[in-house]
């Protein structure tokens, strides 16, 4: 049978049957591979589309949130500007009040010192008057005794 196998093999080789069988075998194997690759590509395309859709949705939501944050920040910025202006005005008023209070305190000290001087003068006058009265009374007593 070895000879018959060799003859068959040689005949198939001459007729191209071996080549045809190899082509059919490779066609089947690579056809299955290509079908599998095509399915995988379709799956990946679906996943990519889903990922893009999800990313688009998230980007839209994020953009909306950013817009809201910018509007809120803008509103607060105007409020902060108003607060800064009010604080500057209040600081100016506080400085004016501090100056007024300082001037008032200085005036009060001067008036207090003037009152003390006036009181000292009045006490001195009272002592002098009292001494004069005492001297006059003593003089009157001496005169009466004489």
Order of helices and strands: HH
Major beta sheet, specifics? Answer: none
First and last CA, distance: 194 Å
CA gyration radius, whole angstroms = 60 Å
Task: Give the mean pLDDT.
Answer: 86
Number of strands: 0
Question: Which regions are unreliable across 5 or more consecutive residues at pLDDT < 50?
Answer: none
Instruction: Count up the helices.
Output: 2
Shape: rod-shaped
The portion of residues forming beta strands comes to: under 5%
Tell me roughly what share of residues is in helical segments. over 70%
Structural class: mainly alpha
Quick overview:
It contains two helices and no strands. The protein is an all-alpha fold.
Give a verbal description of the structure.
There is one protein chain. The protein is mainly alpha-helical. It has helices at residues 2-15, 17-145. It starts with a helix and ends with a helix. The relative contact order is 0.02.
List keywords for this structure.
98% helix, 146 residues
Topology:
Layout: H1 2-15, H2 17-145
């Amino acid at each position: 049978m070895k000879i018959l196998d060799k003859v068959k093999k040689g005949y198939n080789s001459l007729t191209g049957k071996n080549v045809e069988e190899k082509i059919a075998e490779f066609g089947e194997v690579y056809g299955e591979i290509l079908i599998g690759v095509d399915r995988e590509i379709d799956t990946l395309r679906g996943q990519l589309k889903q990922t893009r859709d999800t990313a688009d949705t998230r980007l839209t939501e994020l953009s909306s949130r950013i817009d809201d944050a910018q509007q809120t920040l803008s509103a607060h910025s105007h409020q902060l500007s108003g607060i800064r202006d009010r604080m500057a005005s209040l600081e100016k008023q506080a400085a004016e009040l501090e100056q007024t209070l300082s001037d008032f305190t200085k005036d009060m000290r001067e008036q207090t010192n003037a009152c003390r001087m006036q009181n000292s003068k009045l006490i001195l006058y009272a002592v002098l008057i009292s001494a004069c009265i005492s001297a006059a009374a003593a003089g009157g007593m001496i005169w009466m005794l004489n």
